[in-house]
Amino acid sequence: NTENLSNPFEGASTSFGSIGLAFYNGLWAYDGWNQLNFITEELRNPNRNLRLAIIIGIPLVSVCYVLVIIAYFSAMTPTELLQSPAVAVTFGDRVLYPLSWVVPVFVVFSTFGAANGSCFTAGRLTYVAGREGHMVQILSYISLKRYTPSPALIFNGILAVLYIIPTDISTLINYFSFAVWGFYGLTALALIVMRFTRKELKRPVKCPMPIAVLVVIVSCYLVLAPIIDKPELEYLYCTIFILSGLLLYFPFVHRKFSWTRRVMRPITMHLQLLMEVVPPEKNE
Q1: Predicted model pTM
Q2: For the chain, which terminus, N or C, has the lower number of CB atoms within 10 Å?
Q3: What residues are paired with 142 via a beta bridge?
Q4: pLDDT tens digit string along 218-255?
Q5: Confidence grade of residue 139 (pLDDT, cut at 50, 70, 90)
Q6: Closest to 153 in 3D by CA, of 182, 112, 115, 204
Q7: In whole angstroms, how large is the CA radius of gyration of the chain?
């Protein structure tokens, strides 16, 4: 049944902001492409293996996703796909019956794998941020028994609990995509600036300048288009939530006032005893 593929965008909105929101939902499925960069310290020969992982992994996953979407449209109409509470389950009931039960099982496996990968990579990001002084020092401590950055993992878990407060998945995706593409754009912009201001830095893995410029342009569109086309309070709330981090960063991390040290010292000590963690060894 290929008639659904002949005009897949029939009836779709083409407004300036609607396209941005559509990209929010589409790119959310592909998010994770950047997490390989978080674990370069964990890789053997990262100059070689990081390149191979990116060149092989991202195109492979993209091809698999596109094939799955084609399979969905070959078995369901766009209306059925939009109205289905669980597209993969509906597809399994229609195509794989009586073995449709395997679809929810593999969805669980996929979800567990994604969560496991996020815990591994995001935990390292928070751990390094604490180690380099970008966040509080306790986040850089390592478990004495398991040698894992447990404070960083617990911190990310608390944030994850806060993220599920919005009951609507579309709202959550919009919050996430608005924030994350803002940071992607700022990161690419910083890369461009440092390419000119810090030419002496060693760059074993060098991002081509056109790609960095493209990321900045795309990020600006994805962040600004939904706001310009259809302003919503959720974007204001997201911005306020991000900027509120400065209230903690400035006194506790950047300036490190004497009173913040007096506050953090007993907190760090008690958390260290509670979680049985120690500071990482410094490589000379």
Answers
A1: 0.80
A2: C
A3: 278
A4: 999 888 888 887 777 878 888 888 888 888 888 887 78
A5: very high
A6: 115
A7: 22
Q: Under the phi-then-psi rule, with left for phi > 0, alpha for psi from -120 to 50, and beta for the rest, what region is 135?
A: beta
CA distance 123 to 153: 5
Per-residue buried b or exposed e for 29-39, using 16+ beta carbons within 10 Å of the residue's own CB: eebeeeebebb
Name the β-bridge partners of 143. Answer: 277
pLDDT value for 241: 83
DSSP conformational letter for 76: S
**156-175 pLDDT, tens digit each:** 989 888 877 766 777 788 78
Taking the mean position of all CA atoms in its chain, how far away is CA 266?
33
Q: From CA 258, how far away is CA 235, in angstroms rounded?
A: 35
Per DSSP, the three-state class of 276 is coil
Q: How far apart (Å, rounded) are the C-alpha atoms in residues 54 and 95?
A: 33
CB 218 within 8 A of CB 100: no
